[in-house]
Amino acid sequence: MQEKIKVLLSEVEEFKAESKEQLEEFRIKLLGSKGKIKDLFADFKNVPNEEKKEVGQLINNLKVKTQAKFDEFKSSLAGEDSSLALDLDLSRTATPVELGSRHPISIVRNEIIDIFSRIGFTVSEGPEIEDDWHNFSALNFPPEHPARDMQDTFFVESEEGDIALRTHTSSVQVRIMENTKPPIRTLSPGRVYRNEAISARAHCFFHQVEGLYIAESVSFADLKQTLMYFAKEMFGEETKIRLRPSYFPFTEPSAEMDVSCSVCNSKGCNVCKYTGYLEIMGCGMVDPNVLENCGINSKKYTGFAFGMGVERIAMLKYKINDLRLFSENDVRFLEQFKSAF
Ligand code: DAH
């Protein structure tokens, strides 16, 4: 019997399974319910008592080794035909990573900044929650002045007094002038808020870019030339501009600037309402009162300011007819700007 066990043990030690079928044969032959090891245990009762201890150990050892051999091949064969191993193709083109795109408002804002930075404008920002002084009073809107009603304001309750969501980025002008010695040449992009019913043409928040240039002997001609440069860079070399007299408390004189309609080449269409021109911004010479409110000597310095709506420019540039699209985050809309920078 001991001889038999030794033969089986060396068989087990030399065994190598090359397939699952071979391994299964091995299992049935040795570990199965009618297998050789079972037979050995059955024959054990015939072993003389004095040999029982030694033979028992030999059979147990054989069983443990056989089981270990089986387990070893079971796991190595399982690894070999797993789908991962078979499907791995290192030369296959990877699944493309979907890149997001910039929001059209960011694209247009960046373009505006880029155009003005080429003629020396820096970028400055201010808070969206503003006090009355920076949003209104310093800009020459006295208390109770009807011009305050030009912009419907969201007031924020505060113990500090009149705090509101800024209605325009002109508030940043004030902060810059208060803290900087002229010459000043800066752009202030940002989000603004107005208490308006949301529709295709109005929203309770939108974006503006404010421009400010303060130095000695800045004239209206400088303003006009700067805005003409901007319009041609933004809408094309053929673009014409038109300045119409207007009113803002913080500029004197004030104007609104129109650009020729690129949709119909100024012939008249429903985009420009058959006028051939589209209004894109407000502008003017900074009122001396505003300069003085901000600690700038109005006898020595003059300057111009302008403010434009980013959504308005994006709508003209991309022919978008509903303001709400900008804030709905509909991927089908946003995806269309993938190729833009
Ligand atoms: N703040 C004005 C608005 O929101 C726009 C504006 C007009 C800004 C004239 C200016 C300016 O700097 O000079 O309607």
Give your account of this protein's structure.
The chain is of the alpha+beta class and 341 residues long. It folds into 2 domains: 2-85; 104-337, BirA Bifunctional Protein, domain 2 (2-Layer Sandwich), CATH 3.30.930. The protein has helices at residues 2-14, 20-30, 36-43, 49-80, 83-87, 104-117, 132-135, 170-179, 220-235, 288-293, 310-318, 325-328, 331-334; strands spanning 122-123, 129-131, 155-156, 163-165, 184-193, 205-215, 241-248, 251-260, 277-286, 302-309. The strands form 2 sheets. The chain has a 7-stranded mixed β-sheet with strand order 1-5-6-10-9-8-7, with helices on both faces. Strand 3 and strand 4 form a beta hairpin. Helix 2 (20-30) runs antiparallel to helix 4 and helix 6 crosses helix 11 (310-318). The longest helix is centred in the first third of the chain and has 32 residues, at 49-80. It starts with a helix and ends in a 7-residue tail after the last helix. The model has no long low-confidence stretch (mean pLDDT 91). 3,4-dihydroxyphenylalanine (DAH) binds next to strand 9 and strand 10.
List descriptors:
341 residues; alpha+beta; BirA Bifunctional Protein, domain 2; 2 domains; seven-stranded mixed β-sheet; three-stranded antiparallel β-sheet; 10 strands; binds 3,4-dihydroxyphenylalanine
